[in-house]
Amino acid sequence: MNKCTEYYDVVVVGGGMTGSAAALGFAKEGMSVALLEKSQPSAFDINNAPDIRISAISYSSVELLKQLGAWQHVQTMRCTPYRQLETWEEEGSNIIFDAKSLGLPELGFMIENRVLQLALWKECQKYINLKLFCPIQLTNLYQPLGQKEWVITLDHLRHLQAKLVIGADGSNSQVRKLSGIGNLGWQYSQSCILITIQTSTQQQDRTWQQFSPLGPRAFLPLYNNWASLVWYNSPANIRRLQIMSMQELTSAISQKFPKRLGSVMAYSSSAFTLTRHHANRYVVEGLALIGDAAHTIHPLAGQGVNLGYRDVDTLLKVVRYAKEYIKPWYSLTILKNYQYQRLPDNLFMQTGIDLFYMIYSKTLPGLKIIRNIGLMTVQRTETVKKLILKYALGL
Ligand SMILES: Cc1cc2nc3c(=O)[nH]c(=O)nc-3n(C[C@H](O)[C@H](O)[C@H](O)COP(=O)(O)OP(=O)(O)OC[C@H]3O[C@@H](n4cnc5c(N)ncnc54)[C@H](O)[C@@H]3O)c2cc1C
After folding, report:
1. Which domains does the chain have, with CATH numbers?
2. Taking the CA atoms of the chain, what radius of gyration do you get in angstroms?
3. Ligand 1: which atom is nearest the Cα of residue 58?
4. Helix axes 382-393, 367-380, angle to 10 degrees
5. Residue 54 and residue 111 in contact, taking contact as beta carbons nearer than 8 Å
6. pLDDT at 378
7. What's the pLDDT score for residue 200?
8. pLDDT number for residue 59
């Protein structure tokens, strides 16, 4: 082997929200870990306006972040709790999910993606057994003939060797491609634009979403007078919104968003195409995929990174258990336990969201009435509401 080879128990490729959580979890187990990230996130400045990329982080994900020690750093930067989640199509068919119904202090928090990543990185710095390589580009990944360990080539001079490689490098995962894992996916016929706004009133702790056949319109409360809007529509209409000035966008919002939004000012915006994909398998010998590298879903239910955190939690538990019983924790046999638990759950959530997306994108006569009766029925059936909420929160 090359003289510049460094040996690790675990190499995590991708230092985003899921990869850095996984790296931290393995480091806490006392393993030697390398975390590779291609771009350095910019530092947090409390005086700056909120980032465009916001995620609704559910109660169970927050619990994981607390266990990992990263939550304290999120709180020193910024996050906003939400305690109610309301959804409807026609006024009167509203369903309101409330944290109180499950005896929880909140359903989750709205957090800027970068804040979450920086919080995890800050906690990572405490571990001398965790080395962050950033900025770095993965150039190759292979198992030398007859070996089970993986070699990760960073540049011509540096190689890493690992018992376990984690692919956390997002939907276009190089790790997935280089390890020969196939995937199946498509682009939705809907895109979305995220808009950071300033409102005329102080935000409360309710997030809401109104469905319409062209796509939902959602409101995510942030701190003080800041909030975020998610506007789904046809790709052509989103492209039109994307090129508007902030003044034009403000006026489009006031025409198309529910009146309860009140008077707002658009501050910044960014558009996204929406894709769904699912890897055919999550594991091979000495390698596992997590987060968007394994699956992406329509963001209408704010589940993407939350599913990623369920992957992290399960993988850590599977490996911890195998280590306790002195089993080869990086072997395919062990890693399959992770896949058995996570793949069906992610697929179920993806399919459920797709069903929701399809039902709400159709304008068939009569379907709208059925949809609204469905919403009203769920609102009146407390047990069903609690079951849905528990599932969405990963409880
Ligand atoms: C519009 C929109 C709204 C969303 N809202 C929510 C929400 O409210 N709640 C929610 O749970 N989810 C939401 N999601 C989904 C969520 O953003 C993703 O699920 C989440 O970002 C996935 O995190 P990840 O760490 O797996 O992947 P990514 O965020 O894609 O991170 C991958 C990381 O790997 C790095 N990387 C890539 N390639 C390499 C390489 N070769 N070498 C080294 N590093 C590499 C990248 O730089 C990046 O930092 C939303 C998604 C969209 C599009």
Report:
1. 6-62+111-185+276-358 (3.50.50.60)
2. 22
3. 11
4. 90
5. yes
6. 66
7. 87
8. 93
**Structure token digits, residue 205:** 């702790």
DSSP states of 80-145: EEE-EEEEESSTT--EEEEGGGGT-S-SEEEEEHHHHHHHHHHHHTT-TTEEEE-S----EEE--T
Which stretches of the chain drop beneath a pLDDT of 70?
A: 1-3, 362-372, 374-380
Residue 194 CB–ligand 1 contact under 6 Å: yes
For 252, residues 6+ apart whose C-beta sits below 8 A from its C-beta are 241, 244
| Closest atom, ligand 1, to C-alpha of 292 | 26
C-beta 70 within 6 A of ligand 1: no
Say how many Å lie between the CA of residue 101 and the centre of ligand 1: 31
* Structure confidence at residue 302 (pLDDT): 86
Amino acid at 346: N
User: What pTM did the predictor assign?
Assistant: 0.94
Per-residue pLDDT, 95: 87
